[in-house]
TrEMBL record:
Mode of membrane association: Multi-pass membrane protein
Record organism: Cellulomonas fulva
Subcellular localization: Cell membrane
Transmembrane segment boundaries: 68-91, 98-120, 140-159, 171-204, 484-503, 523-542, 562-580, 592-622, 642-665, 734-755
Protein name as annotated: Flippase-like domain-containing protein
Alphabetical list of InterPro entries matching this protein: L-PG_synthase/AglD
Amino acid sequence: MDPRRRFRAPRAFASAVGAPRLRRPTDVLLVVLGLLALVPLVLVAPGPTHLDAEVSRMLRELTGAWELLWSLAHAGLVIWALLLVLAALLARGRRRLVLEWLLAGALAAGSAGLLAWSAGHPASPALAVADGRVAPETFVSVRLALATAVVAAASPFLVRPLRVAGRSLLLLGAVAWVGSGVAYPAGVAAALLIGVVAGAAVHLLLGSPESRLTGDQVAEGLAGLGLTLTAVDPRAARTPGVAEYDAVAADGRRVLVEVYGRDAWDNQFLVSIWNALVRRGERPRLGRSRHDQAEHAALATLLAQRAGVATPPVVVVGDTTDGDAVLVTEVVGTPLAAAPPEALERVDLASGWRALGSLHAAGMVHGRIDARRVLVLDDEPALALSDLAGADLATTEDARTTDQARLLVATAMAAGTDRAVAAALSVLGTGGMTEVLPYLQRAALDRATRKAVRAGSWDLAELRSAAAAAAGVEPPALEKLQRVTVRSAVIAVAGTALAVLLASRLLDVDYASIVEELSAARWWLLALALLLAPTVQLASSFSTLGATAKELRYGPVLMFQYAVQFVAVAIPTAAGRLALEVRFFQRFGVKAPIALLIGMLDSFAGFVVQVLFLLLIGLTALPGLTEPIRGGADGSAGSDGGSIATFVVLLVVGVLVAAVVTLAVPASRRRVRALLPRAKEAVASHAVAAQEALAVVRRPAKIGQLLGGNVAEQLIQAVILSVCLAAFDVHVHLSQLVLVNVLVSLFAGVMPVPGGIGVTEAAYIVGLQAVGVPSAVAVSAALAYRLATFYLAALWGAAAMRWLRRHEYV
């Protein structure tokens, strides 16, 4: 290496001048979550709340060296923001960034000043420099919001050490703002959120770079590992967090360089979480460092080669002096998607199936097979597998069959349906092809392949039919979904009205007082409850992910949960939800009995969580039923006759009625008698698949998702119910609301009423009375809660159902 190039100044900017920019969904997520998080802070403005006062008092009691630290933190944060602007001004080709960062700062400062003014605080005190005197405490610190916006807007352009330094200074500065009395904690949190939202908004408006290395930087990094490269050219992005480059080694070999960049924006924490939730097959591995990911890819490639799988040889793997992990492999062929027609005509497609079979026989699955990761070899008419970074060394039958389905689709897209099916059948046989058929769904494919299939001249239905015909079997049928009828809508409305009427009569509710309560309600709190309602499905989606061993993406599962809300209102029968559940999982290749088993496991986990909540509240000192609450303007207890006895009697009567109706109605009795034998037969006929489906109970991560999702769901529902009660100026302990919600869920679950419509509202009214809520408020709050979490949820549920249909998930 040239001695003059041994020393070079450390990089400050993570991407080259003029690097391509993207608008990222994570910025949308930051804007939405930031604005939602601002809502409760605005509600307590200008404060201080009790927590604000206590935290401020604790920090302001720290004197001496702490006061110096607060002053240094103030100055350090402001100086850091100025240094970032100065660096962009002095760097060649970076002056445009100054305007972008100042735009973010102006947006944040204006928003913070407006928010401070609306809370009754002028913005000017928050702009004062902490110089030893205590500034008046304000709701929003405009200066902190401005500095946060500059740091947030600059982050994608900077190398990771500078990002970490800026974020550390922000956190220290936030504490200093409270400790020096410039703002209360709520105001500091609001300033931070405003700054983050402003930075994300600018990224959405103008885009942000991927932070990829240039070809020269890649060559310099690999020179330190003893590999000399020339003609280093970047490829189009294929995997989040991994940059690929074509290059030529000193001995003339063509090589592929994969860089797991230290500064790559897709490797940042929030972006990695987003990719892990919404991408399947191409997602980065959370919990693995860059070095671990590169080593895993190299190890998987070497193990595959030892098993006789044709795959590109590893040239070098290691870390550069800048902290980037690199993997270099030799280029031995052309991807199927780019292979010329003459090469495709003479290639032996069955060789790809034999290679995949050898990989599976070695106890590995590829996990990312598509038309770009299957290669046509240069020196022989055969196929090879490349890019084993997503390979798993512990396999399941589901994962192996998914590999096979993806290989069949990849070869069919490149060489045609007939040749692809014939090659697969020659290796898999009739039985193996039959197992692959359910997996020939768009939902089982990776994102790039789904797009390619959608843009192609044929669809998966044609491939599935051709494969079934070649194997001599019928294509697997999908569960039929019921449609919305006028009858189901009438049931939803009439059932609720009748139940509320009966409960009101039973509890002797004064309707004039209900009207009075509704007219005096704080409607902005009811609107907040409606905004919080969709977050219930954010939690329940995790429990669904935990109930299945199959790797699903969070996005479609979340849409499925919203669609369930629509089905629960529009088609209030158990059959409607079951049909949707089975159809959804069938799109991922899961057989109908196993889909039912997944739903049962999810429901059982919810029941276990409910029982645990009952035990926790019953065996501890947490408030339960009939304990006094704070209600009304004077804070006095609001009970007017409700009791636990009423609630328990209603629960027992409901269980008895459900049992009597089930035994008395012949159709219900026959369904119950047929249920257990059918379930036993289904599990016995799919014993291996059932064992894999139940294997989730042996995986701590899956158990955590199952239980954690259900716990979060119960708590969020209790919080929403609390907000509904607060709209009528009644405040109930959270444990009491959790108890009411659990008992109502159990009660509605055993009642023989489709969807629990009507009986759930009545149970909430009685349950709220049992914790001391006045009758009029109990009726009003119960109706508001059910409107927000059930009936109006059908609106976004209908949109989710259309999304699922459009993307062929149902």
